[in-house]
Amino acid sequence: xxxxxxxxxxxxxxxxxxxxxxxxxxxxxxxxxxxxxxxxxxxxxxxxxxxxxxxxxxxxxxxxxxxxxxxxxxxxxxxxxxxxxxxxxxxxxxxxxxxxxxxxxxxxxxxxxxxxxxxxxxxxxxxxxxxxxxxxxxxxxxxxxxxxxxxxxxxxxxxxxxxxxxxxxxxxxxxxxxxxxxxxxxxxxxxxxxxxxxxxxxxxxxxxxxxxxxxxxxxxxxxxxxxxxxxxxxxxxxxxxxxxxxxxxxxxxxxxxxxxxxxxxxxxxxxxxxx
Length: 275
What we know:
Radius of gyration: 19 Å
Helix content: 25-40%
Number of helices: 11
Number of strands: 9
Shape: globular
Strand order of the largest sheet: 5-6-7-3-8-9
Order of helices and strands: HEEEHEHEHHHEHEHEEHHH
Distance between the termini: 22 Å
């Protein structure tokens, strides 16, 4: 009700949404299906993920998002179809090569943590990937700032656990980075840091896909949105087009300022500066 004047001021403005340079396809999936008994979790999905982009994977609970991510990563179940990263199927690679192809941060990051301290987890990541000693700890510091490396991983906050697992995955320098519901339990500051990390990964040429229900996070970080329903991809396109097509996925700014194309507060602020 209070946005009428703002809509008038923005009537002649468009959201400044420069697209990052996009490389070629890094991950290609064709006719990918995942079946559990009588349940088809992923149905004949064709998907490419390009270098230099952050892609959001959205859909209701049970839509097949997690099953798709694990199938793309290579260790998850597949009933049919193919996945290639740089010409190779991650499922056919040895452990070291698979980590260099695809890194996945699961819904519960602590599931991948099994040693007694943060330092031990990072040291093991360096050893397994052949990275220089201290590489994982350096990445962790960039992600989360100062942290007690003698702490047990189970004693970390949710944001710190996420950062630790992401640092472990990134130590292998994977071409594709997949994250499953990474914003759960994160405060606004932690979400901003994560968004910055994903932007840096894309800028370095990685292909990033984030499964999430957080429409505000998607509006701030993703250039592309893929929507799943009942195991199928039902929408795929630029964020600004896909998220406003359904009230369930539209961020608050888009709802308030409709029919204008603004998605975030920062886009509105930039447009007002130019008025």
